[in-house]
Structures are given as structure tokens and as C-alpha cells.
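Protein modeling request. Please complete all fields; requests missing the sequence field cannot be processed.
Requester role: graduate student
Desired output: 3D structure, C-alpha cell encoding
Chains: 1
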Amino acid sequence: MFRDFWTCDTVAEGQAYFHRWYNWAIRCRLEPVKKVARSLKSHLDNILTYFDHHLTNAALEGLNSKIQGLIKKACGYRNRERFKTDIMFHCGGLDLNPANE
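Delivered output (101 residues):
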């Protein structure tokens, strides 16, 4: 049910939707749903900033996941410079076949 929150167009509309959802969630008999509702309510001001900027941290989380995969694939790094080089190589969007001019 909370998924539709992100389709709201304005802060006021998002806030109204959240309060309707929150009232439903608190009356729910499932304690995990109540716990999530309380957590979201405590961060509501920060969540509502999405409607001003339309930015999320999804891209950053994806990049972090890619870096964690590199660490796992390499079984760790002993050399910090090699770690930085691998991140730039795999995540930096480098062209492996640059045009010769």
C-alpha cells in the first residue's frame, strides 16, 4: 500500500497520503508493519524532501553494491591503491578501446 506514496505530486499530497497510510498501519495487527510505520514517521520530514528534489540514494546504493561485489570477487584487497584502481576500472565508465587520434 505504501508504494503509491511515491506517485504523489506535491509535498502536501504526499503528507496526506502518508497520514492515511500511517493510520491504517498503526491499526494493523501485524507488529512488524507498526514498527515500520513508526520508523517512517520519525523520518517523515526527510522522506518528504523527495517531492522537492525527486532524488533518491538508489544510484549510490547500486554503486556500493557493485563495489562490495568487487571486494568479494577479489577475496579482499591488501593494497589500497589497487582497490581504488579496480573501482575506477569497473565503475568509472572507462572505454577499453579508446579511439586512436
